Amino acid sequence: MRVDASESWSTIRELLGEVRERASHFLESLPGRPVAAARSTDDLVRALGGTLPRLGRPASAILEQLDEIGSPGTVASAGPRYFGFVTGGSLPASLAANWLAAAWDQNAFSQTSSPISAAIESVALRWLLEILGLPATAGAAFVTGATMANFAALAAARRSVLLAHGYDVDRKGLQGAPEITLVAGEQAHATLFKAFGMLGFGREQVIRVSADGQGRMRTDALPELTGPAIVCTQVGNVNTGAFDPVGAISNAVQTDDVWIHVDGAFGLWARASHQFGELTEGIERADSWATDAHKWLNVPYDSGVAIVPNAEALRGALSLQAAYLPERTGREPFAYTPESSRRARGVEIWAAIASLGRDGVEALVERNCRHAQRFAGGLRAAGYQVLNDVVLNQVLVSFGDDRATSEVIHGVQRDGTCWCGGTSWKGSTAMRISVSSWATTGEDVERSLAAILRVASGVTPNRG
Ligand SMILES: *Cc1c(COP(=O)(O)O)cnc(C)c1O
User: Fold this and answer.
1) What are 52-90's pLDDT values in tens digits?
2) Which one of 263, 268, 392 would you pick to mutate in the ligand 1 pocket, going by the greatest count of ligand atoms within 8 A of its CB?
3) Which residues are bridge partners to 230 per DSSP?
4) In this predicted model, what pLDDT tens digit does every residue of 128-170 receive, in sequence order?
5) Ligand 1 neighbour 234 (Cβ under 6 A)
6) Which residues fall within 8 angstroms of residue 90, CB to CB, at 6 or more apart?
7) Closest among 451, 434, 452 to 394, alpha carbons compared
8) CB of 286 within 8 A of CB of 259?
9) Which of 141, 409, 420, 425 would bridge 336 by S-S if both were Cys, CB 3.0 to 4.6 A apart?
């Protein structure tokens, strides 16, 4: 069968009505289904594969196939009991905005290609800066995630610290540039090193500063620094949730040619709450921050933000000029991002903040952290060892020895009530619990805790 464009337009209302039904059914099924996927990747490839079709099929048949094959192949990470990695769900307002924005199909490149996307990014940025307590005039890039936010911020850092030495790296390149000293904590996130690689620094040309027992960079272990240098701190260790002492580090080393970057993929959101004042103090004095909206702000994938008070450094590194670009006043989105054409991510960030309000973002962060405390308390009460100081939304737990802990992790994933992943912490296997979703209730935490304890009680560690 051939489907022409006029037929598709005339049936669009019906088609999107079917999407609404199928998506609603999917979301309503999340709390009651096993959290792990029911089908494996290999199995799904077989089910979706087959030969390349010569002729097209109607969209509604494609949608039906996608739902029937694809939905059982999803992890219920949008649901209330997924505690893997650091994973938010999608707030209803944010999901709905994402649907409308998909219909708009805007190119978020510029004011000309999409006035609404450019406008909503500006508003979302102003709100974000206020919630996070960061300088109101900062520039920002709306990117795919913290990996690219780190990349964008470090491109600005590279430019700025070399300009302080009279060298324009974005014109002349790194070959022949004054050498930049790169510093990161022993526990810095793996994606940061990928950003170093992409920027031509090399993944291994980084001085690693030793960490304390919670994974925090030790200020007393910082090297003597002369610029140009970039120091990458982290707020929110993926295992422990711990924060590097950013204020103390910036007091110790920050100058014109020593740039302090903060990877705050999820931890930066602690600044939405007054409760974490002591933890987050001094972070606002850094030179750049990377964060994710798809983690704690609970917007759909993919969504990260790089924030740089020296907006000119970010623009200088990432803007471009072309004959077809009209001169505009005001913020041009493309001037700040590694990408050119891209989707309108600001829409979902704006909708999420509009639906929660400032108080709602604070309440979400605090609620998830209370739930993490409850997990830790329940596990300790049952005699298991919580390995980290639970300062935020992350809990690390051991069930005796490596084998027992691995068995509990796999048992929990098979049980399906909730989903937790594993990690290696100080050379031992640990289970990670990350509470980051708007959808998680106190009841979900109790059900999940009961399931973890039930699985663990059937696993006996080797004693002695
Ligand atoms: C998740 C995370 C990243 C990577 O973020 P992506 O959104 O996956 O690109 C970087 N740093 C930290 C601390 C993280 O938690």
Assistant:
1) 999 999 999 999 999 999 999 999 999 999 999 999 999
2) 263
3) 182, 259
4) 999 999 999 999 999 999 999 999 999 999 999 999 999 999 9
5) yes
6) 78, 98, 298, 299, 300, 348
7) 434
8) no
9) 141
